[in-house]
Design brief:
By secondary structure, this protein is α+β, with helices and mostly antiparallel strands. Helices cover 33% and strands 12% of the residues. It has a 5-stranded mixed sheet with strand order 8-13-4-3-9. It has a 4-stranded mixed sheet with strand order 6-2-14-18. It has a 3-stranded antiparallel sheet with strand order 16-15-17, with no helix packed on it. Helix 6 packs parallel to helix 13, helix 19 crosses helix 20 and helix 19 packs parallel to helix 22. It binds a DNA duplex through helix 21.
DNA sequence: TTTAGGG
DNA sequence: CCCTAAA
């Protein structure tokens, strides 16, 4: 989908502010959503990976988008349309908003009931690389994730022992945020580390609040950049355990809301290129989920009545400006965070989670206190911006909204550019001082930044007679469900090198072909749902709801704009069951390990759907039940990604030749087992094809050959072997024929 | 799934 | 590399 950046600040209520369409009936509406899925409230986090002597700093940012806002936005866009696809994320205009009061207002009126988790599998690119000599040979195990779940309590304590630990890099993300931020709140701690909610065991994410004042923050940031361990930790996560330890100004009620976390990250490059809009808002919504026990389970149902009811509360609690009427309408929407909490609780047997009931949770470890719950609401001072939800590179479908956002952003935040630059500078200073210096010197830090996110695609079909309300509810649920199902578990960090997933954690960098001088760009990371906890089993019956894509007639009428996922956006890799081959020998083929290329979207989705049942809609909805289906491309052509090209190395060719000499042609399976058993990406068909090309290559003149030159010696052997086995084959046939004749 | 071939 | 018919 695109890249999202969250900046601190106001919530974007614009979109939501005009609930014109509320209550209207949609005639035909089917949508497909590309939702970034974010497991938790990850916001900006940085990962430090130790590669031998080299540390790679990764930062990734996850943004939370208010589902409702987004939804509302979509609804508006789609009204009257049969289908809309991947609407751009609404951006809030910061324009008229003044800071203080206004802001509060925004906080209070959050229509954004659900924060949709958006997310990501971020691809992190190396910004710099360290050149330390020693590291080159030392890199042994480089990227490894800890199998051990991180205990919640230990959020901040992730240590190097584990293959990697993530710590927020203060220097980066914060900078951007604070620049933009207008909020008066200050953070005592520059960054907070959130442990991922229970869900993400392996991944801890750091969140930082943008709210803090810019100046203050800067100081902190820069300072902290170097001491990762120090950052104060706050946890916004669902777990109570992860409470923030950050001092917030009074206002800041960053509270325990999970969703509060704001994400920001600085991506200098990106910013430069395209800052865009603000996406989400969040926390302030005080409202609770519908008080009714959720019949369906975990998904919150949004209802109008609820909204109204909540209104008062919100105002009170916020004590700030009242939300505009319009906004109020939306308030009721439950927030994701709440939802989550509820969900968590459900596990424990608790059912409802409305604002009222929250207190119940107090008992939990680090339980939320009533006070806290109240504080939570007012918090939203963050502004979320996203950059190009549809990456330009995608060539994709931009809604035409894109341009404006940017403008607004710049305009609204006067000095933004300045700030950004400043931020950048700061970042550069803080972090990169070392990093860059290292470039030339021996410092061993490498900085990574997220280049893109992969967003899975969900397809939601909605009956024509559905009301918007139902749509919201359903959608929320389904989407949430899907999201949770997928991401409910912990996140797993995947390493992608040159487009291939490297699954073998035990593999050394060297084995993986990752080297400093080598294209570090080629190194990427993905956040994937953790297989272990991924699924929420829904009854099989639930599946019945899933509709094949084909069934969606309305789709045919969809707007011309192809819903195609922008190229830039790759599908999240959801390999539910990555296989690890810890002890495996790579033998000659370094590349052998690179696992399969990124799974094609469809595949991954399907897999998800199947395995985790992520997409299974809630069981019993009304007639209005929505069916969520993985966006399967009807035709393979659309989505199926061509496997990445993996030219055969000379060593591979040699192995192939040797095997064929021995086994002959026509026994590719044996050849594979014999010579390429470890190279999973080489199929017998590949070997056969390679042999075919080798034969061809051997026959043509050297001048005509392309690619990595194959030693003539090998080519000669190829011809010889080919001739020999061809002859054998011919003989076999002759023999066979003669036998048959005899029989006849 | 593997082969064998065409694209 | 992909796609497919045939085993």
């Amino acid at each position: 989908m695109g890249n999202f950046w969250v900046l601190e600040g106001e919530s974007c209520s614009n979109l939501c502010s005009e609930p014109d369409w509320v209550g209207e009936k949609i005639l035909g509406f089917s949508t497909s959503l590309l939702f970034p899925l974010v497991p938790k409230k990850l916001s900006v986090s940085s990962v430090k990976i130790r590669f031998g002597l080299v540390d790679l700093m990764l930062s990734f940012c996850v943004i939370f988008v208010s589902f409702l806002d987004y939804f509302a936005y979509i609804a508006r866009l789609t009204e009257g349309m049969y289908r809309y696809e991947v609407p751009p994320i609404p951006r809030a205009t910061r324009s008229a908003r003044g800071r203080g009061n206004v802001r509060k207002k925004s906080d209070s009126n959050e229509m954004c009931a659900f924060d949709l988790l958006t997310t990501v599998a971020g691809k992190l690119l190396l910004e710099g690389e360290s050149t330390s000599n020693s590291s080159e040979k030392d890199r042994s195990v480089v990227v490894k994730y800890t199998a051990d779940p991180v205990k919640e309590d230990e959020d901040t304590s992730l240590k190097e022992n584990k293959g990697f630990f993530i710590s927020p890099i203060v220097s980066e993300a914060p900078v951007v945020n604070h620049c933009l931020s207008k909020s008066t709140d200050t953070l005592s701690g520059p960054a907070s580390v959130i442990t991922s909610s229970d869900c993400s065991e392996k991944l801890s994410s750091g969140e930082r609040f943008v709210n803090g004042e810019s100046k203050v923050e800067n100081g902190n940031c820069s300072t902290k950049a170097e001491q990762e361990a120090d950052f104060s930790s706050c946890t916004l996560g669902a777990d109570s355990k992860k409470q923030m330890k950050i001092d917030l100004s009074n206002d800041a009620k960053i509270s325990t809301n999970k969703r509060d976390a704001i994400c920001s990250s600085e991506f200098p490059d990106l910013w430069d290129r395209k800052p865009s809009m603000l996406v989400a808002l969040d926390n302030t919504v005080k409202l609770s989920l519908s008080t009714d026990p959720d019949p369906f389970g975990s998904f919150p149902v949004i209802r109008n009545d609820v909204q109204l009811a909540n209104k008062d509360d919100d105002e009170k609690s916020c004590g700030s400006i009242q939300p505009s009427p319009r906004n109020k309408a939306f308030r009721p929407a439950p927030r994701v965070g709440d939802w989550r909490m509820r969900k968590l609780r459900d596990d424990e047997g608790h059912v409802n989670v409305d604002s009222e009931t929250r207190h119940v949770y107090q008992n939990r470890k680090n339980g939320y206190t009533a006070e806290r719950s109240q504080r939570d609401f007012p918090i939203k001072k963050r502004k979320l911006y996203y950059c190009n939800s549809f990456s330009n590179s995608d060539g994709g479908s931009s809604d035409g909204i894109s341009s404006s956002p940017t403008k607004d952003l710049n305009r609204d935040t006067s000095g933004y550019s300045l700030a950004s630059s400043g931020a950048r500078a700061a970042a550069a200073t803080s972090i990169s001082k070392g990093a860059r210096a290292s470039f030339r010197s021996s410092d061993s830090h490498v900085k990574l930044k997220i280049k893109s996110f992969r967003v899975p695609e969900l397809f939601v079909e909605i009956p024509e007679n559905s009301t918007i309300g139902s749509l919201k509810a359903c959608k929320s649920r389904t989407v949430m469900e899907a999201v949770t199902a997928i991401l409910g578990g912990s996140l797993h960090i995947g390493v992608v090198f040159q487009g291939k997933k490297v699954r073998d954690d035990s593999k050394t960098l060297f084995q993986a072909g990752i080297s400093h001088d080598d294209k570090l760009d080629a190194l990427g990371f993905t956040l994937e749902p953790n297989p272990s906890r991924a699924s929420q089993p829904l009854g099989p019956e639930g599946r019945s709801c899933v509709l094949p894509c084909e069934t969606c007639q309305p789709l045919t009428r969809c707007s011309p704009a192809p819903a195609v996922i922008p190229n830039g956006i790759q599908q999240g890799t959801y390999n539910v069951f990555p296989d690890h081959h810890p002890g495996k020998n790579l033998s000659n083929f370094i590349e052998s390990d690179h696992d399969s290329a990124p799974s094609s979207p469809d595949t991954s989705l399907e897999r998800n759907g199947a395995d985790s049942r992520a997409l299974v809609p809630v069981a019993a909805m009304d007639a209005e039940v929505l069916a969520v289906v993985p966006m399967r491309k009807p035709k393979r052509s659309e989505t199926a990604q061509r496997r990445i090209r993996r030219p055969f190395s000379v060593s591979e060719v040699e192995a192939l030749v040797q095997a064929v000499e021995k086994l002959g042609t026509g026994r590719w399976r044996d050849v594979k087992m014999r010579a390429f058993d470890i190279a999973k990406h080489r199929t017998c068909v590949d070997l056969k094809d390679k042999w075919k090309t080798l034969v061809h290559t051997a026959r043509i003149s050297p001048q005509q050959r392309r690619g990595e030159p194959v030693p003539q010696e090998l080519l000669d052997r190829v011809l010889i072997a080919h001739a020999y086995w061809s002859q054998q084959q011919a003989r076999q046939q002759m023999k066979h024929q003669s036998e048959t004749r005899l029989l006849l």
